[in-house]
Amino acid sequence: MEKTVRIGVFGCRRGKTYIKALRLGKIRGARVTALCDRDPERMEKCAEYCYRGRLAPARYTDAEEFFSSGKFDAVILCNYFHQHAEYAVRALRSGIHVLSETMAAATLSDAAFLCEAAEQSRAVYMMAENYPYTRGNFELRRLYREGTLGKLLFAEGEYIHPMNPKDNAEISVKDENGYYHWRKYLPVTYYSSHSLAPLIFMTGEMPKRVVAMSAADDPAHAAEYGRLKPDAVGVMLVTTDKGAVMRINGSSYMGIRGNWYRLGCVRGGAETVRGDQAQVRVGYNSWTIPEGTEQVRTYEAVWPDGAEGAENCGHGGGDWWVMKKFIDAVRGKDDPFPDVYTAAAMSAVGILGYRSILNGNIPYDIPDFRDPAAREALKDDRQSPFPPDKTF
Ligand SMILES: NC(=O)c1ccc[n+]([C@@H]2O[C@H](COP(=O)([O-])OP(=O)(O)OC[C@H]3O[C@@H](n4cnc5c(N)ncnc54)[C@H](O)[C@@H]3O)[C@@H](O)[C@H]2O)c1
Hints:
Blueprint: E1 5-10, H1 15-24, E2 30-36, H2 40-51, E3 58-60, H3 63-67, E4 74-77, H4 84-93, E5 97-100, H5 108-120, E6 125-127, H6 135-146, E7 152-160, H7 165-170, H8 193-203, E8 207-216, H9 219-225, E9 231-240, E10 245-251, E11 258-265, E12 268-273, E13 276-284, E14 296-300, H10 318-330, H11 340-358, E15 364-365, H12 372-376
Parallel strand pairs: 1-2, 1-4, 2-3, 4-5, 5-6, 7-10
Antiparallel strand pairs: 7-11, 8-9, 8-15, 9-10, 11-12, 12-13, 13-14
Helix pairs in contact: 1-2, 1-10, 4-5, 5-11, 6-8, 8-11
C-alpha cells in the first residue's frame, strides 16, 4: 500500500480551502498533519475544520519551527502573496514537496532561485493555479488539441474580481513594522496567473515578451477608500514562443465578476461563455467547417474522466483539481501544472508587465528560466513594489 502523504498548511486563511478539497473531495492517500499561522485563533478555526477533532494536526505559530518539525512531506504555501518563493526554496532544499499559491515569485531574483532549487531537489514543485481546471477550460484545451481549430493566432484571458475596498482595507492593516498588508501594494498585473495560466494549459504556448498598460483609479474613489495603489485595471499583450498574441487583463473593480477565455485560431475559435464557466462556444470559418459539425454551437462542457470530487469544491472545481494533481504528482502519477518554469515565467509576465507600465509601455523579454546563465543574470534583480521584508 502507498504511504499517506503528510501535508503541512502554511497560512490558514486560504489554506482552509485545500483542507476542504481533501475532505469534501474525498482525495485519498493524503492527510493534513501540521498547520502554521502566526494568528493562533485563525489556526485553531482551521484545525477544527480539518478533521472535526480527530487526528488533530500539529500547530505552529513560528515558521522555522514548522518547517523543521519533520511532521509533513509536502507543504501548501498559503502565506503572504509576495513571500512564497523564499519558503518554497526553504522546503525544496529540505526535500519537502511544494504546492505554492499565486504568485510563485515576487521578484525576478526569487524566480531564478526558485527554479534552481526545484532543479536541485528531488521534491515536486507545483503552483496552485486553479483556473485552468474548470469544465469550460478543460473543454477549450480538448478542442484546441483535437486540431480542428488550427494554429493559434490570438488568445484572451480575463479575471475580474471586484473586491469591496472597505473589506480590503480591513484585512490590509499595518504590521508591527509599520507596513501595510500585501493587498495594499499589489499592482494589478501581478495578479495575472488566473488570466494567463488557462491559456498556457490549453495551448502549451509559453510567454516570450510582454508590453502593458494600466488605467488609474478615479482619484475620488481612491481617496474615499484609502487606496495606496493607483492602478485599477491592467492590460498586457504577451507574445508566445510560437508567435501568437495573448491579451491578459484583470481588475478588482468593474462590477461584473467572472473569468473569460478565448482562443482565436486560423480555422476557428472557441471561448467560454461569460458568466458560466461550464458553457463553451465554438465556431469555424465558413470555409473550414469540419465535416459533420455545425458552424457555431454553444454547449455545456463535461468534466474529463476522474473528476469525481470536483463539484464539491470551490473555484468551479479548480481547487479540487489542484489538490488532486499535486498529490498525483507527488506520487509520480501525473506531471505538475503549472510546473516551476511555467510558474516563474508567469511571475515574470506580471513583474515585467508592471515594469512596462512604469517605463512608458516599453516591451520586455520574458527570461528563459530553464537556462542557468539566464537565471544567473537575474539573481540581483530584486525590484519589488512591496515594502522591504523586515518581519521574516
Ligand atoms: N487561487 C485562488 O483562487 C486564491 C484565492 C485566495 C487567495 N489566494 C492566494 O493565497 C495566498 C494567501 O491568501 P490569503 O487571502 O489567505 O492571504 P492573507 O494575507 O489574508 O493570509 C495569509 C495568512 O498567512 C499567515 N502568515 C503569513 N506569513 C506567515 C509566517 N511567516 N508565519 C506564520 N504565518 C504566516 C498570516 O498570519 C495569514 O493568516 C495569497 O498568495 C493569495 O494570492 C489564491
